[in-house]
């Protein structure tokens, strides 16, 4: 369910005057689309609590159901204001679905709702480059990888090919991809900790889960960027 704060804020439909929760995309009584609320959360749009272990199949079904109700074609003969609202609600719904269906962006989004500042450039899943601190346990591996990457770049400039070097980079890529998969598994375990702490209203456990998730996401981003660098060097 939505948070208590979201549930408690009520408003009225602009068309029929029926009561509805603030941020509701349309009126259940008359079906009219509503003006999008600036502070509505992605979880609230789908009637979900701020939990991380989501039923993604259920999320998809809810998305398509809401999409049909909010589609601009439904409001083709409505007022210009309603048409604009349907476009804005549809855009918001699409953003919410894209964010929540991806486990990494879902986690980052929840952390931002919880007041954790996440560097958008560093956290983006689009491969945006940004320098970050090397995890201590990866110092030796990263040093060796950087030497190999530099050698590969030099070979590319001179037109040379070193099959052994290419094989070493492929091996490193596989290793780092395995570390990313391990991070994802650890993250899912932390979801259970967060969700249980939320149900128990255990703020101390929630705080601990948040801190651990942030550290794990930082490490995952760094490793993901290493995989990106190897792919670039290999021309993948």
TrEMBL record:
It comes from the Bacteria. Residues 41-113 form the J domain. Transmembrane segments: none annotated. Signal peptide: none annotated. GO terms for molecular function: ATPase activator activity; protein-folding chaperone binding. Gene3D superfamilies: DnaJ domain (1.10.287.110). InterPro entries: DnaJ_domain (IPR001623), HscB (IPR004640), J_dom_sf (IPR036869). GO terms for biological process: [2Fe-2S] cluster assembly. Pfam families: DnaJ. Coiled coil: none annotated. PROSITE patterns: DNAJ_2 (PS50076). Co-chaperone involved in the maturation of iron-sulfur cluster-containing proteins. Seems to help targeting proteins to be folded toward HscA. PANTHER family: IRON-SULFUR CLUSTER CO-CHAPERONE PROTEIN HSCB (PTHR14021). This is Fe-S protein assembly co-chaperone HscB. It comes from Alloacidobacterium dinghuense. The lineage of its organism: Bacteria, Pseudomonadati, Acidobacteriota, Terriglobia, Terriglobales.
């Amino acid at each position: 369910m939505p948070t208590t704060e979201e549930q408690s804020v009520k408003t009225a439909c602009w068309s029929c005057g029926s009561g509805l929760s603030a941020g509701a995309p349309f009126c259940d009584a008359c079906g009219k689309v509503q003006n999008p609320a600036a502070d509505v959360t992605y979880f609230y749009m789908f009637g979900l609590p701020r939990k991380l272990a989501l039923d993604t199949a259920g999320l998809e079904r809810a998305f398509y159901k809401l999409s049909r109700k909010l589609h601009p074609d439904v409001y083709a003969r409505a007022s210009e204001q309603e048409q604009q609202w349907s476009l804005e609600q549809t855009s918001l719904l699409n953003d919410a679905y894209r964010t929540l269906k991806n486990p990494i962006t879902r986690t980052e989004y929840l952390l931002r709702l919880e007041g954790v500042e996440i560097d958008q450039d560093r956290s983006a899943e689009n491969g945006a480059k940004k320098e970050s601190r090397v995890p201590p346990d990866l110092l030796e591996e990263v040093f060796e990888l950087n030497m190999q990457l530099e050698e590969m770049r030099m070979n590319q400039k001179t037109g040379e090919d070193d099959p052994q070097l290419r094989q070493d980079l492929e091996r490193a890529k596989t290793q780092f991809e395995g570390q990313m998969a391990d991070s994802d598994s650890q993250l899912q375990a932390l979801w259970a900790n967060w969700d249980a702490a939320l149900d128990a209203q255990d703020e101390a456990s929630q705080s601990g889960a948040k801190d651990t998730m942030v550290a794990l996401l930082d490490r995952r981003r760094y490793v993901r960027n290493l995989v990106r660098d190897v792919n670039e060097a290999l021309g993948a």
